[in-house]
Amino acid sequence: MNFIAMDFETANRSPKSACSIALVVVRANKVVDSFYTLINPKMYFDRRNVQIHGIHESDVQDAPTFAEVWPHIAPLFDTNHLVTAHNARFDINVLRQSLQRFEILPPHYLAIDTLQTSRKLYPEFPNHRLNTVSAALKIQLQHHHNALADSIACAQILIHQVQQFGPDQLRPFIKLIA
After folding, report:
1. pLDDT in tens, 145-168
2. Which of 58, 78, 80, 104 is the 20 to 30 Å CA partner of 72?
3. Domain hosting residue 133, numbered range
């Protein structure tokens, strides 16, 4: 299966406050490339968010804004690419709100949520958080809440699900984001 795994971290509760993004490119069920950058949200950093992901305002002061990052990653977001995230509703909303903030038209792309697929395919798990699913599937998750580490784990979860259940079992979970 070919897809892109995506993860954002935010500076505060606002979905417009992306402070890091990671994308992991998977071709034929193998990770072949990755992209990670800090983002300067030009917004305040909430103490709780910093405790979760460890990114401070001082870390991003020289980082690009989301508008500066977007041209580099935009080609990955079209109806020819499947994008996955664990709790995709959050990441898709951060992407949508970040684009809207800079008056950039949102792309149309296909998406699948490994949180939803995990709930359906592994109902016996105690919960379906990224770290729980990763541990249950014996997927190494280093530095949980680091966007790159989370994207890699998400990619490995979907690869595992494709290999265990086949792509036909996952097709009903794919949605067009428009």
Report:
1. 999 999 999 999 999 999 999 999
2. 58
3. 3-177
